[in-house]
Design a protein that fits this description.
alpha+beta, Immunoglobulin-like, three-stranded antiparallel sheet, 8 strands
Amino acid sequence: MTGPGGALRAMAVLLAAAALIAGASRGDGDAPEVTSGPTPAATSQATPAAATLEATLTRADVIAVSVEGEPGAYTFDVTVRSPDTGCDQYADWWEVISAGGDLVYRRVLLHSHVDEQPFTRSGGPRSGGPVDLQPVDQVLVRAHITTAGYGGAGLRGSPSGGFTGSFSPEGFAADLETRQPQPSGCAY
């Protein structure tokens, strides 16, 4: 039996193939340019469409952030979409980072959310301490997944201005991945 991850991967292969076929048949009467000479060797590099699709299937995205509370003691409600398959692959935390790359707050997630996608979890005084920010402090909110680390979509904003601007955190503050707190395991 194929699990949720297998079904998503199969769908990714089908969508990538469809994108390649659509790209090859332009429909405008122009045939792709053919040159003589040796055929280029196959490479492991994916097409941009396939790479984007693969990233979607392996990365955790922050899709919404809301903030309530007082300066210096905010609670963040963060909505994450992730391709959780169980303890073998799940979004294991979301975090708030300063524009300079410093860890402000991390909300550790102790189990997968296979049947709850997207999911929202709070972080603040009720769950590990307040998010210590001032109303106009610009921060980034991103998620982490056990199998691929960082790299999904995140949101940028401030407690007073809201979180609407997206960003791709690939490579940004990657050293935070080893910082505490860390998950102590996965419950399910």
